[in-house]
From TrEMBL:
Taxonomy, superkingdom: Bacteria
InterPro entries named in the record: DUF5123, FN3_dom, FN3_sf, Ig-like_fold, Pectin_lyase_fold/virulence
Residues covered by the DUF5123 domain: 412-521
Pfam families hit by this protein: DUF5123 (PF17161)
Species this chain originates from: Thermoflavifilum aggregans
Protein name: Uncharacterized protein DUF4957
Length: 523
């Protein structure tokens, strides 16, 4: 019995020992590759001044301390080498424009570095490039900021700004030092530029770029130049000179001087009337009576002028039979109250082939006598065939455009601001037969003068409306506005001071997102 008991306990003990050995964990061999696996992809998110570069960790490296080499270069193949080589101990990297240059196209490649006996991985290349847009403190350049040999640059005053570098298309550079006073004013005039040349201006605080802007200087004036700038004390000199000059002449007026039109002058030849180039106040045309036209004329151009009334009801009121190729108004403003139209055709078969308006501010037109700013009447046969209006502001107006019973070709109104417009049953635009090409784009419509008796566009035209907006006080009693997007506030909310003609956009988010309206009012 004792023998049996001893054998029993001996067997039991051996069994327990065996079970314990069976349950004991045996070490698992860790996989260590001879070469690290290549990261599978690269993700790039670029902002204005920094870029976030990330990639999936190499396979089988969770227990290894792996670092990665990140190369950034301008060549997608990196055959010409890398501009920057960085090492990261994570699978992402944030790089700012303290390291990278702004406005340069970069590519990225990444590899896992050798460790623990494993060789470095192969490179993985980005499938797309990135560019840091950089800080932009330069303001918008208006047409009036650019001359043939100079430019007026403006920017948001910024600490440390001390240099502007201008680079011409041929690579020539000009370095302009910015004083502390210039920086405080946020403005400098750069002279000595070449006519008709494209320049890129870059502004620096030390070595740090703070913005870049590109512009093209105006071409030098050529042709038959009639220069009246040296004649002073004769306000009628323009009126006296116009009948004597050959067709195609360019008449230069002195900036800051006033030139009177004491009675109606009738154009019968091609002419350009303009202020000489400069940054001071434009010349003033003071009209006691309007201009007329007769016969066939290639073009009549008004440029860089203040068009003021001293009793005139129109700028042009064409009462003779006339066919004009182009009437253009560029960089012009009005002064005073024009009780009728700015331009009116009133005689049968009068024609303007093209009316071109750019960078103008026109106000106080047509309200008293219920006239349109641009009006072709004449018993339904006068016509402005093509109308093209850009980057301009119109306020305190009765009608905008009216043409009766004719078939014009086109009307394009782009990047314009309207406010305090349409009353007494007037229409914004009134065509009997609408142009085949009829486009309103990037415009802002502010308050209507008479919400109870104002009309949008007569009937239902084949009209294209894109990126246009209207304020809560832009209200039409009939022919309601359509195609435009409602803005959540009134004109007094959106504009800085509409009652005084300041339509600077006060909603910075709206301005940045949509860039609509006359560009001069962008903050």
């Amino acid at each position: 019995m004792k023998k049996y008991f001893s054998i029993y306990w001996l067997a039991t003990g051996m069994l327990l020992i065996g079970l314990m050995n069976a349950c004991e964990k045996k070490p698992v061999n860790q996989f260590y590759p001879s070469r690290l696996f290549t990261p599978t992809s690269i993700s790039i998110i670029a902002y204005d001044t920094l870029v976030n570069i990330s990639w999936p960790a190499s396979l089988y490296t969770s227990t290894m301390h792996v670092t990665y080499t990140v190369q950034i270069g301008r060549d997608s193949t990196f055959q010409s080498g890398a501009d920057f080589t960085l090492v990261a101990d994570t699978n992402y990297l944030v790089v700012s424009d303290d390291t990278l240059a702004d406005r340069v196209k970069y590519f990225v490649r990444v590899r896992a570095n050798a460790t623990g006996g494993a060789d470095s991985s192969y490179w993985v290349y980005s499938t797309s490039s990135f560019t840091l847009t950089g800080v932009q403190i330069f303001g918008t350049l208006l047409n009036s900021d650019i001359l043939d040999n100079a430019v007026r640059l403006n920017w948001t005053p910024t600490p440390g700004v001390n240099l502007i570098v201008l680079t011409a298309a041929n690579g020539d550079t000009m370095h302009v030092q910015v004083s502390s006073t210039d920086n405080a004013n946020g403005m400098i005039i750069v002279s000595g530029l070449q006519p008709g040349t494209t320049y890129t201006a870059q502004i620096f605080a030390g070595t740090k770029s703070k913005g870049q802007i590109t512009f093209t200087t105006k071409p030098a004036l050529t042709g038959n130049i009639i220069d009246l700038r040296g004649i002073t004390g004769r306000p009628t000199v323009l009126f006296d000179t116009l009948p004597q000059i050959p067709s195609g002449s360019i008449v230069l007026l002195a900036r800051g001087q006033t030139y009177t039109i004491p009675s109606t002058y009738t154009f019968d030849r091609t002419v350009t009337i303009m202020s000489g180039m400069g940054f001071s106040t434009p010349a003033v045309l003071l009209l006691s009576s309007n201009f007329d036209a007769t016969g066939k004329i290639d073009s009549i151009r008004f440029s860089d002028l203040v068009i003021a009334t001293n009793g005139a009801q129109y700028l042009m009121n064409v009462g003779n039979t006339a066919t004009i190729g182009t009437v253009s108004l560029v960089n012009c403003t009005t002064q005073g109250v024009f009780t009728n139209s700015l331009i009116r055709l009133k005689t049968a078969n009068d024609t303007i082939r093209k009316l071109y308006v750019n960078n103008c501010i026109f106000d106080s037109i047509g309200i008293q006598n219920k006239y349109a700013v641009f009006y072709a009447s004449a018993s339904s046969s006068a016509m402005i065939d093509n109308i093209e209006i850009h980057n301009s502001t119109f306020y305190n107006i009765y009608y905008f455009i009216r043409e009766d019973n004719v078939h014009p070709t086109s009307c394009v109104v782009d990047h314009c601001t309207f406010n305090a417009f349409i009353n007494q049953g007037g229409y914004f635009i009134n065509y009997t037969y609408f142009p085949a090409n009829f486009v309103l784009s990037n415009n802002i419509f502010g308050s209507t003068l008479d919400p109870t008796n104002a009309n949008w566009i007569k009937s239902t035209p084949n009209l294209t409306v894109t990126n246009c907006f209207y304020t809560t006080d832009c209200v039409f009693s009939a022919n309601s506005i359509y195609g435009a997007t409602a803005y959540s506030g009134s004109s007094t909310t959106l504009f800085r001071s509409p009652s005084t003609g300041d339509f600077t956009l006060m909603d910075a988010t709206f301005a940045a997102s949509y860039k609509a309206g006359d560009p001069r009012w962008l903050p």
